[in-house]
């Protein structure tokens, strides 16, 4: 099978972690799943450009320049901010590009799960059974999603966060590192759950909650 050509968007921390997820999918050098074309970023820092060059990944330039000049390709977005990710996704989708979905081989995905297009599931993630994950969601390393839960579009679940069973996390929500959402709750669209918070009640859309119990 020919390797799928892939452009990664974002040279920052999560962009390069995404490169690692791609690399883990290419573990067999005789039949790699993806061929990394390079990384697009509209405003990369010098430090991040040096980090890309250190790992021999080509920096391709800004997103807009590629959208104007290149034929549509496959892309994956390595940008942690849900809203920014949504805007970038809309642009590339409108230009006819195709979002690739990445699952690290050490992630465990249970039965009856759906993973939306463009999502990135990192190493050590555990997704239980009957879970729906929307478009362009990011599940960071060692996060867990409980049974019968729903994770909306453009949601970011940061490292080590625990979403319990039967939870509804709506679009563009950010769940901070090591936060816990107790079972059966709803986290409204665009909400932010702070790192290490424990959510014991529903969270209203567009609000930020922090602490234990989260307020
Ligand atoms: C909650 C959060 C969104 C707040 O961001 P912010 O608005 O920029 O907050 P600030 O840093 O200005 O801090 C505002 C106040 O909240 C407190 N605070 C910040 N993060 C907190 C947290 N996780 N839990 C409890 N309190 C927190 C600060 O101490 C500060 O308190 P003060 O006003 O009494 O001094 C952010 O701190 C957070 O937790 N983001 C998730 C981070 C994460 O998951 N990182 C991993 C990336 S891979």
From TrEMBL:
Keywords: Repeat, Transferase. Residues 6-88 form the PglD N-terminal domain. GO terms for molecular function: transferase activity. The record marks 148 as: Increases basicity of active site His. The active site is at 147 (proton acceptor). SUPFAM superfamilies: Trimeric LpxA-like enzymes. The keyword Repeat applies. PROSITE patterns: HEXAPEP_TRANSFERASES. The keyword Kinase does not apply. Substrate binds at residue 80. InterPro entries: AcTrfase_PglD-like, Hexapep, Hexapep_transf_CS, PglD_N, Trans_hexapeptide_repeat, Trimer_LpxA-like_sf. It holds the Pfam family PglD_N. It comes from the Bacteria. This is Acetyltransferase. It comes from Mycetocola zhujimingii.
């Amino acid at each position: 099978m020919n390797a799928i050509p892939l452009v990664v968007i974002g040279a920052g921390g999560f962009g390069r972690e995404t490169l690692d997820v791609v690399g883990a999918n290419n573990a067999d050098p005789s039949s790699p799943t993806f061929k990394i074309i390079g990384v697009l970023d509209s405003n990369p820092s010098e430090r991040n450009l040096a980090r890309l060059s250190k790992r021999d990944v080509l920096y391709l330039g800004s997103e807009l320049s590629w959208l104007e000049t290149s034929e549509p390709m496959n892309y994956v977005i390595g940008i942690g901010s849900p809203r920014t990710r949504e805007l970038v996704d809309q642009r590339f989708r409108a230009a006819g590009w195709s979002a690739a979905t990445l699952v690290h081989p050490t992630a465990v995905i249970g039965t009856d799960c759906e993973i939306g297009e463009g999502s990135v599931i990192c190493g050590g993630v555990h997704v239980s059974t009957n879970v729906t994950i929307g478009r362009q969601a990011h599940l960071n390393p060692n996060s867990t999603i409980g049974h019968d839960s729903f994770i909306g579009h453009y949601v970011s679940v940061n490292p080590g966060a625990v979403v319990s069973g039967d939870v509804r996390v709506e679009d563009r929500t950010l769940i901070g590192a090591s936060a816990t959402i107790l079972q059966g709750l709803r986290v409204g669209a665009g909400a932010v759950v702070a790192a290490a918070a424990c959510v014991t009640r529903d969270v209203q859309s567009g609000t930020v909650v922090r602490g234990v119990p989260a307020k």
